[in-house]
């Protein structure tokens, strides 16, 4: 007699299942150019580049320049997916 094992016991607390991966043109998951991980909290600069909120905040401490294109960053918006 085989008892089926439960792989996933329903919903796990603290682990909301999200399918909203941000894609970068060719269907690849976008990775932050600073930490090279898919951003958890995404922000977009006025020049249109995406970063982690934390990474960009760190970079902007040194000066308001986009680490991708060196454009002056005067606006940063959260991106919700
Ligand atoms: Zn990052
Ligand atoms: Zn830029």
TrEMBL record:
Residues 32-70 form the RING-type domain. It comes from Drosophila gunungcola (fruit fly). Coiled coil: none annotated. Residues 1-22 are annotated as: Disordered. InterPro entries: SLX8, Znf_C3HC4_RING-type, Znf_RING, Znf_RING/FYVE/PHD, Znf_RING_CS. This is RING-type domain-containing protein. PANTHER family: ELFLESS, ISOFORM B (PTHR47094), RING-TYPE E3 UBIQUITIN TRANSFERASE (PTHR47094:SF1). One of its GO terms (cellular component) is SUMO-targeted ubiquitin ligase complex. The keyword Coiled coil does not apply. It comes from the Eukaryota. One of its GO terms (molecular function) is ubiquitin protein ligase activity.
């Amino acid at each position: 007699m085989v008892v089926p094992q439960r792989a996933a016991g329903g919903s796990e607390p603290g682990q909301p299942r999200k399918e909203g991966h941000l894609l970068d043109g060719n269907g690849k998951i976008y990775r932050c150019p600073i930490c090279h991980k898919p951003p958890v909290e995404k922000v977009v600069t006025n020049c249109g580049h995406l970063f982690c909120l934390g990474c960009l905040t760190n970079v902007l401490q040194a000066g308001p320049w986009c680490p991708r294109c060196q454009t002056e960053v005067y606006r940063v918006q959260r991106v919700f997916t």
